[in-house]
Amino acid sequence: MKTIRFLRMISFIFTGLFLFISCEKNDEKISSQDIEMADDDAVVTLMFDQAFTEADMALEQLEYNWKNPSGLKSVPDTCPIIYVDHNDSTYWPKTVTIDFGSEGCEGPFGNIRKGTITIVVTDRYLKPGSVRTVTFNDFYINNFKIEGTKTMTNEGRDEDDFMYFSVELTGGKVTTPAGKEITHEFSRTRTWIEGELTPRWRWDDKYIIAGEATGINRYGILYTRTITTPLMVAISCRWIMSGIIEIQPEGHSLIVLDYGNGECDDVATITVNGQTKEIKLKGR
């Protein structure tokens, strides 16, 4: 009888040990590198979105001036300083330079921006067919260096009567304060779902983003990135509010990054090899 009890006890111990080891192995399915690769994607996305938002905000001021000839022609006495090569309301294209200076300016969400952004504008933002081409010159956000050329074309209205834009980023690169480089190029659509009726108040604007990207992450690994559930972006929120992205690093497991259900917070989840983990995102 004692022998049977002893064998049962040994069996329970080994069963518990097996489950403990299995759980440990399961925890290891999501590595610290997986988390960093997912977070890199989030940071790069937010950095480029913030940089493009800076361009949009400057152009909104100028578009109002172009419609009202008696108003200011450019914005010289602020930080940033904004210059326009042709300020009249009829001349197109225009070249706009946004200069944040070498010391930098504090912007939305406390971000410090340095350097310059140049934008070539072919026509007004709301006119179908208009194009904005954005480039960066020694431009930084919070000591992250931003490079690349973005081309955004107004494609008119979709079947739901929302205005939408095709957006291409070429030569995109973010260099972290530690000197790590992450390259990023994308092709996507940007659908304006809220805020069009209040063109001078951009903080109620919301967009839906869809598309794909490629690049090389901080580890020198080639990756592809596909938005499988469109991203919800609100100008008033520093985080992506919802949507799902699949990140496929070459030679590594698929990473699924889920931004949640629409709350404005820094919480997201990543899923690797069937295991899901909640993470805190770095802010822009």
How many strand units? Answer: 14
Regions with little confidence, pLDDT below 50 for 5+ residues: 1-7, 9-27
Count of helices? 2
- Give the strand content: 35-45%
Largest sheet: 14 strands, antiparallel
Cα separation of the termini: 67 Å
Structural class: alpha+beta
* Overall mean pLDDT: 83
Report the helical percentage.
10-25%
Structural description of this entry:
- Helices cover 22% and strands 44% of the residues.
- It is of the alpha+beta class.
- It has one domain.
- Strands 1, 2, 3, 4, 5, 6, 7, 8, 9, 10, 11, 12, 13 and 14 form a 14-stranded antiparallel sheet that branches.
- The N and C termini lie far apart (67 Å).
- Mean pLDDT is 83; it is low at 1-7 and 9-27.
List the helices and strands and how they pair.
Layout: H1 2-27, H2 32-67, E1 81-84, E2 94-99, E3 105-106, E4 112-121, E5 131-141, E6 144-157, E7 163-175, E8 181-194, E9 206-216, E10 222-234, E11 242-249, E12 255-261, E13 267-272, E14 275-280
Antiparallel strand pairs: 1-2, 2-4, 3-4, 4-5, 5-6, 6-7, 7-8, 8-9, 9-10, 10-11, 11-12, 12-13, 13-14
Structure summarized in a few sentences:
The protein has one domain. The chain is 22% helix and 44% strand.
Top keywords for this entry?
alpha+beta; disordered N terminus; 14-stranded antiparallel beta sheet; 14 strands; 44% strand; 284 residues
